[in-house]
């Protein structure tokens, strides 16, 4: 008898589905395993208003594979012109579950993000009042701050001041990559959550840069040194209630990754659960996997956990190296080791 593991069906609390033919190609990779996902709004143009989010949700629902049971949880892209009343109405109608903060210039399609944080004060105050979470890409963009320090500096200079100025604001520190973020998150109250990606549990910066540059391991925030990866693994596998999975699965075509100035993002949707089971087993924490993938996220977002389940068996897993799209192939994240756990 091979070992098996049954979990409540997971959710992905940070996912890029893109649009058009890319959406159609990547959506089945998520709906196969996940019941719900927080859908990132960094399209071109971005998903800014409730009307934009409703239209994008309809395009996602129209692209669902036959028979898929999947609920996209929509977000709004915070700009300096975002209308607090539009945000409140979008939440009240059940359409929108979070607002996303991109510091302008921090990452893929962030040009419409926030430069002057004073300009978004009224929106943040409204969100604190109505309990709508702010999902944060937590990196400063100052040219004089080293890219490996941008998350730690953001916490001190931007995140903590925003939280102090806006009591009660619920915040998700997205895709944390440092022990600084782990320490900050664990010291806060239950208004603060943190997501961790699959790939940041697996790679450190050597994987990107040593022995030749590996564009498919380049994402933002960029993977840090090994001590940080270890801190992330401890946090993810600890069972701590405010830490949960946000894969940040971020597909780009190989043509856009393999360039002199290539795009940031790792495409992990197809093999995320197999990789996570292996990471948790290596850490002796398989009993905490369900909390990370299926329980902590819904609790933070005030939603019930899923009723149905997925089962993994230790029979070895295969996955495609690439997914075909009308725009060209998208390479799947390669963890660098064979996968033991298959989703059955
Ligand atoms: N993580 C990434 O490297 N890229 C994301 C944007 C983001 O989540 O920062 C993308 O949209 O491609
Ligand atoms: Zn981001
Ligand atoms: Zn992302």
Which keywords apply here?
344 residues, alpha/beta, TIM Barrel, eight-stranded parallel beta sheet, three-stranded antiparallel beta sheet, 13 strands, binds N-carbamoyl-L-aspartate, binds zinc ion
Could you explain how this protein is built, in words?
This protein is of the alpha/beta class and 344 residues long. The chain has one domain: TIM Barrel (Alpha-Beta Barrel), CATH 3.20.20. The chain contains 11 helices and 13 strands. Strands 2-3-4-5-6-7-8-9 form an 8-stranded parallel sheet, with helices on both faces. Strands 1-10-13 form a 3-stranded antiparallel sheet, with helices on one face. Helix 6 links the parallel strand 7 and strand 8 (192-196). Helix 3 packs parallel to helix 4 (121-130). The longest helix has 16 residues, at 150-165. The mean pLDDT is 97. The chain binds N-carbamoyl-L-aspartate (NCD) and zinc ion (2 copies). Residues 14, 16, 40, 248, 250 line the site of one zinc ion. InterPro entries: Amidohydro-rel, DHOdimr, Dihydroorotase_CS, Metal_Hydrolase. Its cofactor is Zn(2+). Belongs to the metallo-dependent hydrolases superfamily. DHOase family. Class II DHOase subfamily.
Name of the CATH architecture: Alpha-Beta Barrel
Distance between the termini: 15 Å
How many beta strands in the DSSP annotation?
13
Helix and strand succession?
Answer: EEHEHEHEHEHEHEHHEHHHEEEE
Give the low-confidence spans: none
Percent in helix: 25-40%
Q: Biggest sheet, in brief? A: 8 strands, parallel
Number of helices in the DSSP assignment: 11
Highest-level CATH class: Alpha Beta
How many domains make up the coordinates?
Answer: 1
- Rg (C-alpha, Å): 19 Å
The oligomeric state of the chains shown is: single chain
* The CATH superfamily title: Metal-dependent hydrolases
Shape: globular
Mean pLDDT: 97
Distinct bound molecules: N-carbamoyl-L-aspartate, zinc ion
Structural class determined from secondary elements: alpha/beta
The proportion of strand residues reads: 15-25%
Order of strands, widest sheet: 2-3-4-5-6-7-8-9
